[in-house]
Structure formats: structure tokens, C-alpha cells
Amino acid sequence: MTSTATAARAEIPVDELEVSAYTIPTDAPEADGTLAWDATTIVVVHAHGAGERGLGYTYADVSTAKLVASKLAGVVRGRDAMAPQAAWEAMVEQTRNLGRPGITSMAIAAVDTALWDLKARALGLPLCKLLGMAHDRVPVYGS
After folding, report:
1. CA 25 to chain centre
2. How far is CA 11 from CA 79, 106, 107, in A?
3. For the segment 62-113, what is each residue's pLDDT rounded down to a tens digit?
4. 102: left (phi over 0), alpha (psi -120 to 50) or beta
5. Backbone Cα Rg of the chain
6. What global pTM score does this model have?
7. Which CATH architecture fits 10-129?
8. In b/e form, how buried is each residue of 87-113, taking b as 16+ CB within 10 angstroms?
9. Cα separation, 113 vs 10, whole angstroms
10. What are the tens digits of pLDDT across the range 29-52?
11. What single string gives the DSSP state of each residue in the chain?
12. What is the end-to-end Cα distance of the chain in Å, rounded?
């Protein structure tokens, strides 16, 4: 998917990848029928480049943040923020021997989302438009 705006934009190196993990207690114990918990952990990733900051996150164990810092940050730093697909491929290659499911996929997803958000911000576009928004509204429900 190449747009005129994307093609006209110069390469933007990813300057920094920040990662943090936060464990947040729930108001009351929660359960889904198979597991119960009293806190949830969110791993937040910020990708920096060209004076912009992209945001990505996932709900995962704090070990996911360590994986981002130790295995993915070095692979992404210096890469072109305008080519998030190439960064995704490099992250998958870097983590090949760690296995794809579980925290590896969650770590890659958080970084990938941050990179797409960084690209959208650098282009001055909402992320949904960059990704080819097909609908201007969607039905939702609460459960």
C-alpha cells in the first residue's frame, strides 16, 4: 500500500524505542471462566523519530517489556520509520529461536503498533486513514 504522501516522504530513522510495564490492580477480582486475576499488566512502547512519538501497547507479563528492550529495540533503532513492514520482518527474524506465540508475539505487536503510529504521525494522518480505513463507523457492544 503506497500513497503519494508515503512515496514523497524522506526516510525517518527510529531514534529510540522506550518500553515500560505497569501492573494495575483491578477494583475487584475478575474472572473469565477459566482464570481469575486481581491485577492487569500493560506493556507500553513509544517509538521516537523526526520529533514525533508513536504509541503501541499490549496486555502481557512484565517479561514482555524485557524482551522488547533486550531483543527488539536494537533491531528497530535506526530503521526507517516509514517502512514498518521491514521492521516487523526484522523483529520476527531476530526472535526466530524464541518461538512465535506468547510474549514474543505480544512484544512484536506492541512495537509494530508504535511504529505504525509513528509513521502516521510523521505523515500527519490518523492511523486509521494510513491503514486504509474502510468504514466511518462500526457497530459495537459491551459484554
Report:
1. 23
2. 9, 27, 24
3. 999 999 999 999 999 999 999 999 999 999 999 999 988 899 999 999 999 9
4. left
5. 17
6. 0.86
7. 2-Layer Sandwich (3.30)
8. bbeebeebbeeeeeeebbbbbbbbbbb
9. 21
10. 999 999 999 999 999 999 999 999
11. ---HHHHHSPP-B--EEEEEEEEEEEEEEEE-SS-EEEEEEEEEEEEEETTEEEEEEEE--THHHHHIIIIIHHHHTTSBTT-HHHHHHHHHHHTGGG-STTHHHHHHHHHHHHHHHHHHHHHT--HHHHTT---S-------
12. 35
**Cell numbers describing residue 92:** 520476527
- Paired with 13 in beta bridges are 80
Residue 55 φ/ψ, nearest 5 degrees: -115, 135
Asked if 30 and 63 count as a contact pair (C-beta separation under 8 A), the reply is: no
The set of residues, in sequence order, having a beta carbon less than 8 Å from that of 136 and lying 6+ positions away, is: none
8 Å CB contact between 93 and 71: no
**In whole angstroms, what is the distance from residue 56 CA to residue 12 CA?**
18
Contact 95, 79 (CB under 8 A): no
Domain coordinates in residue numbering, the chain: 10-129
Cell readout for 131 is 491503514
